[in-house]
Each structure stands twice: as structure tokens, then as C-alpha cells.
């Protein structure tokens, strides 16, 4: 069984908390940055950072300016919030918008948490900048009582500047609170918005996660995490004094990219309350999953309204589509991954007015974009006709690729012949061929927005005539980049699968075929302290092949609501225990913790079922001169396993080998 896991780090609007006496209506005054597109937080505890490379520290380059005035507990308007980290960039200082904040327990060499941030900062009166962030509060569960300090290192681009010096803060004495905030309740959908309630007076910031499932369920293990952890501030007050989340919707910069990756299905969310006073309250536990929201109802309503458009007048058609609403059209088109629903209806309307937009590919990018494989649907419903899409070199050659991405290809998509290519009233579906050097399993598309910042698009990937394509829906055009999010994309072949029978020289009778890997059988979950581990605990007998993390399916670890991929294990075959040695994207402290949690008798248990031998397996049979069978070998995952004499029996009449015992089962013609 292979479980699909899609982990997306969210480019987060991050609020830093607020003083206890601040009213809910004033919360926006205490957000560091209100536009989420201007900021991202990439943490070793929030997302898969397998592809994160250490910043370039070339000593031949000038260093960025060292940060100054590091403080705990300072926020905007001098509001004192325990656990908030603050620092400044001096006037005329050189800063390129990225930094690393690491939090240490005093006396320990390894950080408790490492966080990678991008933040433009806020201007000081003297012309400098200040930044105020809350990683301690976000990761409060990781901190026991004790003294802590944080370090700040500004990261350079490795082209013009190297990293700044690392600067250390004073100590903060943290005393872990006895009380725990209650988890949010009354989770509900009002699409495209979500809502939840907090207990009166006990709110602060919150973290949010989205989930998806093909079927309706209340079992978290059947859901795919599609949200990472996104943290922001509750925004409206209820009459009973509770606070309601509002405005965090699936059509936001975070949510809408998931729809076109998964399409129709069941969507869920859950919420965690972050403490506004960490010396009095710990963060809450995660809430229960929300009720399911399915797109079908919205899509059906949208399709019905499109079907009602019978006019042949362009202006009337455009007005009718605009009345349906851009968000509703976008959602329905994104959910139509097969192209036989809303997209087909939009295409039919477009045919009334000249059909699809013309596609052109500039010679500068022609090697990566086969014009015959490019499609755009809906563009000619946004103007008076004659829309044209041109793919070429990026309009801006200075686009930054954030550190969580690699293997990038930057390009422009310019749409002309429409009213406003930066704000289309009728969304368009674009299909592009996936670059041949890109791994589709980790493919994302960065959209460099006209308003500044980026959005990450998770396209729907499909294959046609041996070519992979990316399908996605847009409402604006500018520069884009194909990127990969994970560098651990090398497939493990599980040994030598060349079908070699080992050079049999006896009067043996060998049957060769492609070796079939013994796939893991049952996916389950185990908990070790704060770690929730998903893996296939039941596997088929492995013969002489080596057991690796691949042997147990796509092993995943959830820690503080964040999922990591297991990249290395140690297997004790005798005791049938697994020790996790390394997590892809986790910092050293997390990997060290899970190594301890799964060591020795505390390791993950697994069971072994017999390997079922079929006619498709490679079996080598050696016979004696009198025709009786001398030995039997079965190739399992590329390795020959010599079956013990009590593991098989030979029926000379039918010339069938029957396998038996705890290691092997099935039959094979001799």
C-alpha cells in the first residue's frame, strides 16, 4: 500500500501575539506584516526542508550587516509579549530579506529549533528596520522550564553578499505553565471561509492545518495533510466574548493552490490555539477535525448557472460569468481535473467568440516549452477577442528562489488581448509540459505576483502520450518558475533486478521473469512520545535483501503537527524492530529525539508474512541426476534466497514446487 503524502509549507502571515488588554478589533495593529505574500517562514519544525541548502558564506564576499538590539518580549508599540524575538537592522545596513533564527537552551550546543524566515521588516524612525517574530511561542511544546537564548544570522544571496555574523541574545528564563489553553471548538465551513471558536478571553494567535480525503471520514490517518501549519491572528469577536476565525479561506494564497492538486473530494481543517501569555498558559492541543466540506455542491451550482448562459452576445456572456463570481468559477475549474465539467463548459462558451487564445513560445525558452503541448482555456472571455499567450524569458531577471526550492526554471507568461491580465474576471486553465529535468512528484510552480511576493501553485499532473503535463488555473499573469521542493527523489531499486539466474550449471530447470518486489502490506500508525509514525508494519518475507526505509512503505513522522519523511533507518531483523535514524528536512535535534525514542526495545515493531511465490517470480531449481530436486532458490528484491528443505516440497507428477512455512508460500512450475 502506498499512501500519498503531500506536504506543503505555507507562506505564512505571522502575527506575533498581543497584550492581554488589546481588543479583538485591534488585533490587526499587532501583525508584523498584513500581506502574506510578502513573508514566509520556513522552519525545521514546520514543513519538509529536505531541499534547504546552507546559505553561501563565501568569505570573499562582503558580509551583510550584523543585526543589533536583540531582545526577548518586545513587539509593536512596545507591547510586552513573553517569548517574542526582536532585532533591528541599523540605518544604512545591508539586509537582503532573509535570516535564520535558532533558539538554544543555555548550556546545550544543539538548538532546540531552527527557523528560516523571509521578512522585509518594518521601518524605524531613524531609517533602520526592525523585525519581531514568535518562533518560541509557535514551538512552545518543545521547551521545558529553563534558560534560553536565540541567535540571528542574516543570510546573503551568495552572489553579492555572504551571511552576517551570528549575534546572540540575552537569556530568557522560561517557567512552563501548569495551565493549558482549551482547544478551539465549533469548527465549521461557510465556504470559502472557515470558522472556529475559542473560550472567552483565552485566545491569542492560532495555527491552522488543512486536510484532504477521497472519502468522507473522521479518521485522521485516512487524510492527506495539505496545509503544513499556518499561523495568524483571530480576527473577529462574538457577542459572548469568544473569538471567531474568519477570513482564512480556501481561495486565499494558501488554500486555492491545493484545490487544483486534489480536485473534488472532502476537505477538513483543524486549529490550535497559541498562548497569548506563555507564563500562564501552554498552547492548546489541536482541535478535532472539522466536518467535511465537499466541492460537489458548489461545482454543481456553478455548472447550472453556466448552462443558463445561452446568449450569443459577448458582453452578455461576460456579464453572466462575472455574476457567477471569479472565486466560484476558479474553484469549479480547479476541481475539474478531468476537464469534462466546468472547464469544458467554459471552453464551449469561448468557442462562440473565436475559440482559444493564440499560443506563442519565444525562442529563448523553446527548448523547455513545446508549443504543441501548451493550452489555455477561457482567455477570450476576458476581452473583445484576439487574446494571445506568449511564453518567454522572465520579465525580471532578479527573481529570488526561496531556499526551500531547487532545480528552478524561471519564465514569463504574458497574456495580451484581455481587459486586465493581472485581474481576470473569468479564470483561465493553463496546461504546460513539465520540464524533462523536473521530478513531477515534487513539482511546484512559483507565481511572482504583480503586487509583490509569490504564491506557490501545486498543479494537477497528468500524462498523455508519454509526456507529463502540469494543469492549473490562474486569474493573473506575470513571471513564473517551475521548482522542486524535495531533493530526496532517487528511487531505490531494492537490489539487482536483472533476472540473472546465477549461472546454473547442473541439470536444473530455471524459470526467469521480471523480479517482483515484495510490497509492504498494511499501513498503520504508532506513537513514540510526541512522535506519530506512519509505516507499513506488516511486510512480506525479504529473503537476503537489505531492509531500508523503503521496505516499510512511505514512512512518515508527524511531530507537533508537522510531517516529515523518514530517510534512514536501522533494522534489527532478529528482534523485528526499526530505529529511525534520520528525518528528511528535520533539524538535528528532532532527528536525535526520534533516534532515542525508537532505540532498542522502544523501536517500531514489524511482522513478516510469507513471501507469496508466483509464476512471475524468478525461481532456480537444481535437480539431481535421478530427477529429484536438490535445491530451490527464489529471487526476492534482486537477491537469491536459497529455500530451506522444509520450506518447499516437489510434486514430480505435476512438476510443481509448493512453498510452505513461515517464510514462503505459493507455487511455481519446476
Give an overview in words:
The protein is mostly beta strands. It is built from seven helices and 46 strands. Strands 33, 34, 35, 36, 37, 38 and 39 form a seven-stranded mixed beta sheet that branches. α2 runs parallel beside α5 (326-335). The longest helix has 12 residues, at 296-307. The chain is globular and about 90 Å long. The two termini are 31 Å apart.
Give the SSE map.
Layout: E1 40-43, E2 68-74, E3 80-89, E4 98-105, E5 113-118, E6 122-123, E7 129-133, H1 135-138, E8 146-154, E9 167-168, E10 172-174, E11 179-180, E12 185-190, E13 193-197, E14 205-213, E15 224-225, E16 230-233, E17 236-237, E18 243-244, H2 256-262, E19 266-273, E20 281-282, E21 293-294, H3 296-307, H4 314-324, H5 326-335, H6 342-351, E22 358-361, E23 375-377, E24 388-392, E25 406-416, E26 428-433, E27 443-448, E28 454-457, E29 460-464, E30 467-474, E31 479-484, E32 509-511, E33 522-528, E34 531-540, E35 556-559, E36 562-572, E37 577-584, H7 588-597, E38 604-605, E39 607-609, E40 611-613, E41 619-623, E42 629-636, E43 639-642, E44 648-651, E45 656-659, E46 664-669
Parallel strand pairs: 11-20, 22-24, 34-39, 40-46
Antiparallel strand pairs: 1-5, 2-3, 3-7, 4-5, 4-8, 6-7, 8-9, 8-10, 12-13, 14-15, 14-16, 14-19, 17-18, 19-21, 23-26, 24-25, 25-31, 26-30, 27-28, 27-31, 29-30, 32-41, 33-34, 34-35, 35-36, 36-37, 37-38, 41-42, 42-43, 44-45, 45-46
Amino acid at each position: 500500500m502506498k499512501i500519498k503524502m503531500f506536504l506543503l509549507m505555507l507562506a505564512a502571515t505571522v502575527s506575533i501575539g498581543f497584550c492581554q488588554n488589546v481588543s479583538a478589533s485591534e488585533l490587526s495593529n499587532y501583525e508584523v506584516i498584513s500581506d502574506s505574500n510578502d513573508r514566509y517562514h520556513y522552519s525545521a519544525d514546520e514543513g519538509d526542508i529536505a531541499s534547504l541548502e546552507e546559505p553561501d558564506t563565501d568569505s570573499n564576499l562582503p558580509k551583510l550587516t550584523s543585526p543589533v538590539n536583540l531582545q526577548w518580549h518586545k513587539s509593536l508599540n512596545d507591547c510586552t509579549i513573553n517569548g517574542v524575538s526582536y532585532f533591528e537592522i541599523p540605518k544604512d545596513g545591508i539586509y537582503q530579506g532573509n535570516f535564520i533564527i535558532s533558539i538554544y537552551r543555555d548550556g546545550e550546543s544543539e538548538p532546540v529549533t531552527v527557523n528560516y524566515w523571509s521578512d522585509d521588516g518594518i521601518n524605524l524612525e531613524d531609517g533602520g528596520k526592525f523585525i519581531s517574530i514568535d518562533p518560541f511561542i509557535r514551538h512552545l511544546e518543545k521547551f521545558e522550564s529553563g534558560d534560553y537564548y536565540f541567535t540571528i544570522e542574516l543570510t546573503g544571496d551568495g552572489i553579492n553578499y555572504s551571511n552576517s555574523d551570528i549575534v546572540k541574545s540575552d537569556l530568557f528564563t522560561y517557567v512552563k505553565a501548569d495551565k493549558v489553553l482549551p482547544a478551539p471548538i465549533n469548527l465549521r465551513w461557510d465556504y470559502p471561509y472557515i470558522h472556529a471558536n475559542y473560550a472567552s478571553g483565552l485566545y491569542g494567535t492560532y495555527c491552522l492545518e488543512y486536510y484532504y480525503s477521497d472519502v468522507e471520514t473522521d479518521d485522521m490517518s485516512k487524510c492527506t495533510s495539505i496545509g503544513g501549519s499556518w499561523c495568524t491572528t483571530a480576527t473577529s469577536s462574538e457577542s459572548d466574548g469568544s473569538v471567531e476565525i474568519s477570513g482564512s479561506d480556501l481561495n486565499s494564497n494558501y488554500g486555492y493552490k491545493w484545490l487544483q492538486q486534489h480536485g473534488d473530494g472532502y476537505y477538513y481543517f483543524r486549529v490550535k490555539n497559541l498562548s497569548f501569555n506563555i507564563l500562564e498558559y501552554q498552547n492548546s492541543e489541536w482541535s478535532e477535525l472539522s466536518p467535511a466540506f465537499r466541492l460537489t455542491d458548489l461545482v454543481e451550482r456553478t455548472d447550472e448557472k453556466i448552462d443558463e448562459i445561452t446568449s450569443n452576445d459577448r458582453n452578455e456572456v461576460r456579464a453572466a460569468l462575472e455574476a457567477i463570481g471569479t472565486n466560484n468559477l476558479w474553484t469549479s475549474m480547479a476541481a475539474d481535473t478531468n476537464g469534462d465539467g466546468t472547464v469544458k463548459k467554459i471552453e464551449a462558451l469561448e468557442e462562440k467568440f473565436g475559440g482559444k487564445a493564440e499560443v506563442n513560445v519565444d525562442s529563448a525558452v523553446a527548448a523547455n516549452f513545446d508549443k504543441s503541448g501548451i493550452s489555455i482555456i477561457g482567455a477570450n472571455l476576458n476581452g473583445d477577442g484576439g487574446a494571445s499567450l506568449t511564453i518567454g524569458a522572465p520579465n525580471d531577471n532578479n527573481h529570488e528562489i526561496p531556499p526551500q526550492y531547487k532545480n528552478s526554471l524561471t519564465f514569463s507568461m504574458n497574456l495580451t488581448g484581455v481587459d486586465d491580465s493581472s485581474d481576470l474576471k473569468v479564470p483561465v486553465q493553463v496546461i504546460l509540459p513539465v520540464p524533462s529535468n523536473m521530478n513531477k512528484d515534487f513539482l511546484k510552480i512559483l507565481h511572482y505576483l504583480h503586487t509583490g511576493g509569490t504564491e506557490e501553485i501545486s498543479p494537477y499532473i497528468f500524462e498523455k502520450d508519454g509526456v507529463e503535463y502540469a494543469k492549473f488555473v490562474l486569474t493573473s499573469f506575470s513571471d513564473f518558475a517551475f521548482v522542486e521542493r524535495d531533493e530526496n527523489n532517487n528511487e531505490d531499486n531494492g537490489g539487482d533486478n536483472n533476472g540473472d539466474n546465477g549461472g546454473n550449471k547442473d541439470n536444473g530447470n530455471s524459470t526467469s521473469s521480471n523480479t517482483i518486489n515484495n510490497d509492504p502490506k498494511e499501513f498503520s500508525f504508532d506513537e513514540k512520545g510526541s512522535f506519530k509514525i506512519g509505516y507499513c508494519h506488516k511486510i512480506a518475507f525479504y529473503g537476503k535483501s537489505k531492509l531500508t526505509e523503503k521496505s516499510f512503505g512511505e514512512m512518515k513522522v508527524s511531530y507537533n503537527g508537522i510531517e516529515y519523511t523518514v530517510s534512514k533507518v536501522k533494522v534489527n531483523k532478529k528482534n523485528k524492530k526499526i530505529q529511525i535514524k534520520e528525518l528528511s528536512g528535520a533539524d538535528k535535534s528532532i532527528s536525535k529525539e526520534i533516534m532515542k525514542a525508537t532505540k532498542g526495545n522502544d523501536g517500531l515493531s514489524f511482522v513478516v508474512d510469507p513471501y507469496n511465490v508466483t509464476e512471475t517470480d524468478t525461481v532456480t531449481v537444481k535437480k539431481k541426476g535421478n530427477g529429484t530436486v536438490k535445491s530451490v532458490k527464489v529471487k526476492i528484491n534482486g537477491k537469491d534466497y536459497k529455500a530451506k528443505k522444509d520450506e518447499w516440497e516437489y510434486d514430480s507428477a505435476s512438476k510443481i514446487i509448493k512453498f510452505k512455512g513461515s517464510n514462503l508460500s505459493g507455487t511455481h512450475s519446476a
